[in-house]
């Protein structure tokens, strides 16, 4: 009989990827499924990036091992990027390029956590944080946030959960799944709290440039030198540049932590794929107008889609400020249709209405569902029609 480690028994597969896989199987069977589970832009990667990567392959400069931390021009471009967008200065040895932001987080938790160390994770949370923390032997301290408070934590909440085992705090603004953004004042208060208690801030800023309707995200590291020194920023090119498949992310911050992450990666991944690094370099240093075009398209979709979702019977939704998800409480709709649990409701929506949402349990909020607006407006409208019809026939 095969043996599986105790470590792996404690974690479960990413529910977003699992739902997406189910949808793909149904699509392959010829079903017309509207897939609103996907956490990636439906835009093409820009031609300037494609050309740079092809050139790097054809000239053979991208086809061998690179330094584990990434090619120097890319690390420099990441440093320049933070200077340009936030006015924050880092040195090149404070950057590690990784296979997506996901692997930056994975390496980070391995480097900072000892068994039993606690990480404060605001809920609802992105599905991989909790599993990665468990894999590193850490303990998730989940802190619930309320929709009336914009799904945001305060220092008061944090203080209630702090003890001598607290090592880090995870902040994801704009948030997946809620799309909410912390204001500079809120971030400053949290940053000062973290500095006062020597708690590492892990700032996942992957949706940082996807903000709408006048809302802006700022980097917590830009608020003071002390806060910057207490923060590791996680970011990447997946969402901003529609490059999810290229698998390039990074961590930037404390040089000692970064150098340990490089040591770890030297034994696990060696380096992120060479061609992808050249693509990422072109993304960060090349034309940026298409980023704004994509952002504006998401903003238009949000403004179109939000009122439609709010009009679905039994759906209660707060309007997000960034990212590309809505996160309604759908418990009432599920109950109206005779389902005790939202996950059975979302399963029935896939199978009978052929609309796929992700149930909120993987995000720590089982009464909710995550809906991505990463498809065109007419498909969003069609999805809402199908959900309304489903509810109408089941109630
Ligand atoms: N962080 C958050 C909040 C995310 O939503 C995602 C992707 O869904 C990631 C990190 C990882 O992104 P990637 O590994 O594609 O860079």
For the structure shown, list the relevant keywords.
Aspartate Aminotransferase, domain 1, globular, 3-stranded antiparallel beta sheet, 7-stranded mixed beta sheet, 395 residues, binds pyridoxal-5'-phosphate, Aspartate Aminotransferase, domain 2
On the 0 to 100 scale, the average pLDDT is 96
- CATH fold name of the largest domain: Aspartate Aminotransferase, domain 2
Question: N- to C-terminal separation?
Answer: 47 Å
**Please, how many domains?**
2
What is the count of β-strands?
A: 12
What percentage of residues falls in helices of 4 or more residues?
Answer: 40-55%
Ligand set = pyridoxal-5'-phosphate
Task: Please identify the top-level CATH class of the largest domain.
Answer: Alpha Beta
Low-pLDDT sequence parts: none
Give the spatial strand order of the biggest sheet.
Answer: 2-8-7-6-5-3-4
Rg from alpha-carbon coordinates: 21 Å
Corresponding CATH superfamily of the largest domain: Type I PLP-dependent aspartate aminotransferase-like (Major domain)
What is the second-level CATH architecture of the largest domain? 3-Layer(aba) Sandwich
Order of secondary-structure elements? HHEHHEHEHEHEHEHEEHHHEHHEEEH
Structural class: alpha/beta
Number of helical stretches of at least 4 residues: 15
Given the C-alpha coordinates, what overall shape results? globular
Query: What about the largest sheet?
Result: 7 strands, mixed
In percent, how much strand structure appears in the residues? 5-15%
């Amino acid at each position: 009989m095969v043996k599986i480690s105790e470590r792996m028994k404690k974690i479960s597969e990413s529910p977003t990827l699992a739902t997406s896989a189910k949808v793909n199987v149904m699509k392959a069977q010829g079903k017309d499924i509207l897939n609103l589970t996907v956490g990636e832009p439906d835009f093409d990667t820009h031609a300037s990036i494609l050309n740079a990567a092809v050139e790097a392959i054809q000239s053979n400069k991208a086809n061998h091992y690179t330094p584990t931390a990434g090619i120097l021009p890319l690390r420099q471009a990441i440093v320049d990027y933070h200077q340009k967008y936030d006015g924050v200065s880092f040195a090149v040895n404070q950057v590690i390029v990784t296979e997506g932001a996901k692997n930056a987080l994975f390496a980070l938790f391995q480097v900072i956590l000892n068994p039993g160390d606690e990480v404060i994770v605001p809920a609802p949370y992105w599905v991989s944080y909790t599993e990665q923390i468990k894999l590193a032997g850490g303990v998730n301290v989940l802190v619930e946030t309320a929709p009336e408070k914009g799904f945001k934590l305060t220092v008061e909440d944090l203080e209630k959960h702090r003890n001598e085992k607290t090592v880090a705090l995870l902040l994801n603004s704009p948030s997946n799944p809620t799309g909410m953004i912390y204001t500079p004042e809120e971030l400053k208060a949290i940053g000062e709290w973290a500095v006062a208690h020597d708690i590492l801030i892990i700032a996942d800023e992957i949706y940082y440039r996807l903000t709408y309707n006048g809302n802006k995200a700022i980097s917590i590291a830009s608020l003071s030198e002390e806060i910057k020194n207490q923060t590791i920023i996680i970011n990447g090119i997946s969402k901003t540049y529609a490059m999810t498949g290229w698998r390039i992310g990074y961590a930037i911050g404390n040089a000692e932590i970064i150098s340990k992450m490089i040591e770890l990666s030297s034994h696990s991944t060696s380096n992120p794929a060479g061609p992808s690094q050249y693509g990422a370099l072109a993304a960060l240093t090349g034309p940026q107008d298409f980023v704004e075009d994509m952002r504006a398209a998401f903003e238009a979709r949000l403004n179109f889609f939000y009122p439609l979702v709010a009009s679905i019977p039994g759906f209660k939704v707060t309007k997000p400020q960034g990212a590309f998800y809505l996160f309604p409480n759908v418990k009432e709709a599920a109950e109206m249709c005779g389902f005790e649990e939202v996950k059975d409701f979302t399963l029935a929506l896939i199978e009978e209405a052929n609309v796929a949402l992700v149930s909120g349990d993987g995000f720590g909020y089982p009464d909710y569902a995550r809906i991505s607006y990463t498809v065109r407006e007419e498909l969003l409208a069609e999805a809402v029609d199908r959900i309304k019809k489903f509810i109408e026939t089941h109630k």
